[in-house]
Each structure stands twice: as structure tokens, then as C-alpha cells.
Amino acid sequence: MIQLIASSFGRATAWAAALAILAFAPAAHADIVPVSAAQCAAMKARHVITPANPVPCSRLSTVSFDYTDFDGATRSGSVVVLDAVAPQVESLFGELLLRSTPLASAMPLENFDGDDEKSMAANNTSAFNGRPMTGGGAWSKHAYGAAIDINPLQNPYVTKAGSPQQQVLPSQAGADYVQRMPLRPGQAEDLVGVFYDHGFLVWGGNWKEPIDYQHFEIGSREFIRKLASMPRAQARAEFERYVARYRGCVRQHPQAHTGDADDDAPEDTVLRDNCATRMRK
């Protein structure tokens, strides 16, 4: 009985301490707002969007959030995304904050004049950019606001990997981060389950050529175009169903773990990847 009382008292003390910490901790900031006329004008002036872009400013939202930097400080950042995916993106970055996942920077591309290589060189996490695919002529999925690049230095874009013609962007990543093991803070491998859980079911780190460790996108070009063509509310509901289908697939398995911040059990990466492959459109 004495041990039980002591145990209960210990738990109560721990909860009290936790609540006290939360009471004095600063509240995490997160917000979603439509891209304003002023921001759209800045995006046009800085070569981030043109009239030819497949998605107009009226279908884009700015998601603002707090994040932890590589020194452990809390900072504020934002990304621009397709309005249909904005609530899930807000939740995604909220989860990264809870996990203390470090980000070096998170600024929209107008801060870099729409230059993806400048953004990568600054190790900037970003989303929308009205540009073609790297090394290709078709629109990038970033031009739809349906892709996110995270910590480019820790997660470089690599072409012709392992050959004498190998190229790495950003160049300062060098061989250090082309070598993926052991995992270091800010690398995408630890975050795949988080991105999948919020509907970004494609990771460029799984590609063969190029390998794009920083890149996550929601699915096929056809599915992205479908979302962009729907009214905002309908597109958001369709994307939420997409997320729910993936989560339902993962949670069918009684031993499945998705890598939640408060879950110490190992993530079932095979189940996770199989569900992403099956559920993505």
C-alpha cells in the first residue's frame, strides 16, 4: 500500500511538473492565410510566379509556424502551398516542432528571387516555386504548391550518384551528406513517416535518378491537377480523405507505429512504405 501511494504521488508530482513547464512555455505559433494581393505582387516581381503558372495566387496559402533551429532556439518561418493541403502542412510542421526536428531556415522563395539554387545554398526549407522541374521542362510539383523541400544541406539533390559525373546540390553538402549513414539531425530519413502521415506520400530519397533527399510531394501530377481544378473546399475535403485512407491502411496492423513524437516503439517502415505506394494517387 505504501508503495502504491508513493507511486501515485510520484506520478502526480511528475504531472504537476509537466503542467508547470507547459504553463510557462511559449505557445507555438501556427497560422494559415490566403496569399494576399501584396504578397502575390511580390511573388511576381521576384520571379516566383508568372501568369503561365498552373496554379494562380488565389489558390495558394501561406502557412506560418514555429520551428527549432540547429542551435535549439525557437524561430518563426513560413511556406506557401496549395490551399487544399495547407491544414495538413500546418499540422506537419507542428509535429516537427514537437519532435524538435531542426530546420535551418523556412522562408518563401521571394526571399531568393525564385532561385531554387540560392534557396538550397541557404539551407532553406521551402514549398511553392513556379519553376520547371530541375533538369526538365515540365512544371515542377512545387509550381502547384504540392511539394516541400526540407533542409537541402542535410538532404541534397544528387544526380549520377556514385559515378565520376556525380553532381550534388547544394554543392556545400559535398560527400558528407551524400553518405546517409549514420543519420544526423535534420536528415529526412527520420521524417518520412511524418510526411506520409500528412499526405506527402512520395519521398525523393527513394528515387533512383535523380535522388532528391530533400523532396516530398503528395502524389501524381494527375491527382495534383485534380485538386487544383476543384473548388477550394471540395479540394480540401478530397485531400483529407486521401490522408485518412493512408492512415487507415497503416493502422490496420495492430503492431504498426507511425513514428509519432510520443511513441518509442520502432516504426514499421515496410508497412508504411507499402501503404504509401498503395494509397497514393
From TrEMBL:
Residues 135-218 form the Peptidase M15C domain. Transmembrane segments: none annotated. This is M15 family metallopeptidase. Keywords: Hydrolase, Signal. It is an enzyme of class 3 (hydrolase). Coiled coil: none annotated. Residues 1-30 form the signal peptide. GO terms for molecular function: hydrolase activity. Pfam families: Peptidase_M15_4. It comes from the Bacteria. It comes from Herbaspirillum chlorophenolicum. Its EC number is 3.4.-.-.
